Amino acid sequence: MTDPAKMVEDILIALQARNVRLNRPATVEELHSLESLLDIKLHAFFFDLFSKFNGFISCDRKSQICIGSTADVISRSRTMKKLDGERRYAIGDVLIDSDFIMCALENDSTPVFLLHEEKRLAPNIREFFERLASGTFDFM
Question: What is the pTM of this model?
Fold first, then answer.
């Protein structure tokens, strides 16, 4: 199994290579606030991800995907959807579809999907970011 910290570092490098502008890392206080307000325990992958960059400053121009910050996830918590006993939260937008990217924050192995279209984007969050970094979702 791949180390979450190594995987996140690879994602960071790949996104920077695509010229995606990333927010500064989330603080420990922001991470704990997210956990507290959503009443969850972040999976190590998400803790590492938000600790490296706290979402995108602007959308990835080629894919039209924008990953939100911890504050964005909290503000969109009303869109939470419970599936198979797990709560799935909006972690970002696909702007070209005007839809939210949904996943479980306590588990890194559940599918990533679009809220309204209910289209599956990836079997898990790691593969979602691999596809994003590789250009699989590029519309432009």
Answer: 0.93
